[in-house]
DNA sequence: AGAGATTACTAAACCGCTCTAGTAAATGGG
DNA sequence: CCCATTTACTAGAGCGGTTTAGTAATCTCT
């Protein structure tokens, strides 16, 4: 009752195990009749290749790694992560490549896993998320010489291929939109400054505001948590120069901010416009629904998968991929500010 | 510049490769001095075992599989899944077992992956989620004889060990709570009837209502989506006998329901009490914050991991694990109904 | 018809590690 | 001091495939 090996098939079909190997791998060197006989024998015995045996011979692991250093809470909370995962999967499983997922404490542990999985030949490549400013993981992966794709860019990921959306362009268009509505005091509840994209968005906000001669436009960094998003909003709404519009870097923080506005009796959108830099179920599900910059996260995962598979097939051949700039979906949370409407 | 093998270490340490294998695996048969020398050589050459080579000899794959048949949207949307994943990881990585994740179209594909990964020796066991009524996966896994743990119970998972919380008890306590507040007309926006736990909850609601002689208590099945949660709520609020309290089977649907209430001008909790059967960031983040049954999903993942590892170590030794019954966290969305307060 | 090419197949090495069987030297007991 | 046991090690088979080198039979061409 033990699992069949190619030797068993060879015996049943009356040929050598090399012939079986050829037949099963569509290689020349077996006559159609014999091939047919071998395939039937294999099917009858319900044979499946032993992954390890193939891998030992130097074949692919047919798996890629995704190592994430984040607190568990964040992973559950952000729709982004789940959608990315699903998109990655879709892209990979078409080529029957599996995904090895590992959640670790910190970047040091993450790097250790990269080293281990690489030398154990456990995976064929890696997907790197949450690109940091001066990211330590990039040089390590370059040194290991393992195929890897970074979700983020357009810079900061060294020689590794990056897949990125133009956050700068998106932020500028957002500022344009709010300014066109009449907003002059715009606040930005940003994410973690350690992240590359957070910095880029903050810079873009400044630039956009200067271009349009806006009175106030400033960013408040947070750790991306709902708690900090809420307290940042509280501080903004209680402050002396209350903004008329707030841009939140994530859907979670936008919804937290919305709750704070409700709690403080500030009507949205009448008294405050709210925009999320990330679109998801969250922004659609709440009332009022939140105007948000949306990108196709599922599709993004698919593009990352495709890029990584290409990098595995032909190392060095792959260049950066710029995905579509996030587009604004206007919902109920934005409107011209009270002052502008009065004028 | 190729990766070192035990042969290389053997040469450098001046011993045979068997000696190296013994030393590296803490087996007797090498003197302390030699062992020390071998370990140093291995460390100097930065040697790591080749997983496939070990696996070929019959060793563990040191990985478990999680195959999920759900639409991508759901995976992104529900905090539950991410938290479970993180908890699983935490439990597994302590024993350096990796998680193979696969997202598939349907149950048929899921079963096919079980078969493939089992015969390829790709994983040592499986975690099974979303237990269905008369689940087809259970007999297949039993037949394959592969260790597996089912998230769900206390019945319907055959001889496989199950990890479950007492949904029935939880629903009964929920009904008790609402009845104590004075609610007599309670609606239940349920999940998919194909799921085992949905049926159990529906039955528990009926039983609880009968016990307390409640006028109306009925369940409306949905597909767990925010869209169906919203439309079910709309129907309930527009219907002739509007309930004074609604129990939602998931956090996503509860929040969608909340938005519908706001949109229809029904104040929560003044005109309607809302309870979620699932607690998460979502229920806390919205305004009003939603009263919810909470369980430690992260911890649950850890328990599933522990149970599966035990099942792998000693097949047949593991019995069901009943986890803590979800406990109610009262927030702002529940209150005595208007009629009761008048009296 | 005979040399060379092609076809259909087999034998065996190889991937990196584990583990059993075997051997030589050191140790111990009476 | 000699035989039995233990210790410290080595040789080599085996895990399940892939792949190279080799062989016998058939085909092709002049």
UniProtKB/TrEMBL annotation, chains A, B:
The keyword Metal-binding does not apply. SMART domains: HTH_LACI. CDD domains: HTH_LacI (cd01392). PROSITE patterns: HTH_LACI_1, HTH_LACI_2. It comes from the Bacteria. GO terms for molecular function: DNA binding. Pfam families: LacI (PF00356), Peripla_BP_3 (PF13377). Keywords: DNA-binding, Transcription, Transcription regulation. Residues 4-58 form the HTH lacI-type domain. This is LacI family DNA-binding transcriptional regulator. It comes from Catenulispora yoronensis.
């Amino acid at each position: 009752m033990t699992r069949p090996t190619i030797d068993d098939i060879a015996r049943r079909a009356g040929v050598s195990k090399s012939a079986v190997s050829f037949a099963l791998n569509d290689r020349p060197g077996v006559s159609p009749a014999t091939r047919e006989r071998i395939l039937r024998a294999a099917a009858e015995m319900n044979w499946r290749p032993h992954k390890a045996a193939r891998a030992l011979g130097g074949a692919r692991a047919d798996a890629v790694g995704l190592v994430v250093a984040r607190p568990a809470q964040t992973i559950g909370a952000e729709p982004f992560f789940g959608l990315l995962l699903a998109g990655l999967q879709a892209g990979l499983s078409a080529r029957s490549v599996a995904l090895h997922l590992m959640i670790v404490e910190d970047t040091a542990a993450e790097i250790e896993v990269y080293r281990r999985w690489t030398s154990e030949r456990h995976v064929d490549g890696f997907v790197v998320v949450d690109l940091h400013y001066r990211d330590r993981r990039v040089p390590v992966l370059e040194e290991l010489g393992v195929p890897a794709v970074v979700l983020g860019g357009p810079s900061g990921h060294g020689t590794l291929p990056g897949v990125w959306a133009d956050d700068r362009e998106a932020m500028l268009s957002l500022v344009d939109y709010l300014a066109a509505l009449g907003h002059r005091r715009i606040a930005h509840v940003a994410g973690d400054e350690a992240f590359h994209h957070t910095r880029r968005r903050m810079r873009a906000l400044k630039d956009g505001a200067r271009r349009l001669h806006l009175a106030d436009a400033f960013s408040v960094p947070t750790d991306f948590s709902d708690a900090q998003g809420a307290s940042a909003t509280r501080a903004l709404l209680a402050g002396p120069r209350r903004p008329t519009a707030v841009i939140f870097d994530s859907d979670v923080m936008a919804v937290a901010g919305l709750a704070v506005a409700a709690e403080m009796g500030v009507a949205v959108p009448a008294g405050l416009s709210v925009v999320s830099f990330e679109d998801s179920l969250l922004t659609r599900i709440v009332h009022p629904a939140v105007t948000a910059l949306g990108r196709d996260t599922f599709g993004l995962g698919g593009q990352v998968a495709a890029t990584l598979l290409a990098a595995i097939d032909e190392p060095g051949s792959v260049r950066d991929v710029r995905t579509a700039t996030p587009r604004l979906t206007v919902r109920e949370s934005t409107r011209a500010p009270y002052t502008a409407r009065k004028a």
